[in-house]
Specification:
The protein is α+β, with helices and mostly antiparallel strands. Helices cover 41% and strands 12% of the residues. The chain is built from eight helices and five strands. The strands form two sheets. A three-stranded antiparallel sheet has the order 2-3-4.
Amino acid sequence: MLQLITAEYLYKHHPGASEGELTQTRSSMVNTNTLADLAEQLDLGSYLYLGKGIARGGGRSLKSLLANAFEALLGAVFLDAGYDAAYHYYLNRYRALPEPAQDENFKGRLQQVAQERFGQTPVYESEGAKVGSKREYTSVVFAGAEPLGTGHGATKQEAEQEAAHAALESLVGALKPVTAIKPPRTTRTRARRGSRQPSRNAKSDTAPAAEPPPESGVPLAVLPPADQAENTPAPLPSRQFGAPIE
């Protein structure tokens, strides 16, 4: 549902954008941090049904769970009120964010850089280990035999994103966050009081433009006099309607 909403928005409001710009903007609008911020505005974390272990470990503030909860809420809006209601509900909530959403899809950006420089797709090797009462993942990204970056996180996805971020910093230097273009608010312009448009029936003070001279057409054939009509040979029969030729 969320992918459909963002695809329709980009198609309508950014028809001239390039493929890369559309990909970056869509990723910024649907990334985990953006959806988690929308869920925190609604306090969805307090309504999640969690196990005792993950609840004690801070699962109600985990961004991945909050993002999934907001997607589930958007699906409920769609089932209850239809697609148009879900479309406008998401865009209105997105406009209400205090700061522009940042694109943190480092894996996608690293894939583009790695294919341009090395001609290979990055490969991630991740392992999880229990640290105290929590589980921590470590991920290493490769583009060939040499490792490009290492990351850690509470989930496998977070560890891979951090590893991709570290690899991008080593390859292209400091990264500038890519901000999504927020949907513009539609405003209606009202005409000022007292200003009226001229009536269609009102006469104009300016003289009408002179009509252009008629174009010269094909000269018409002149019929012969009556006394010469008898000596004029008859025209050949036409084949337009299938008349036989003698």
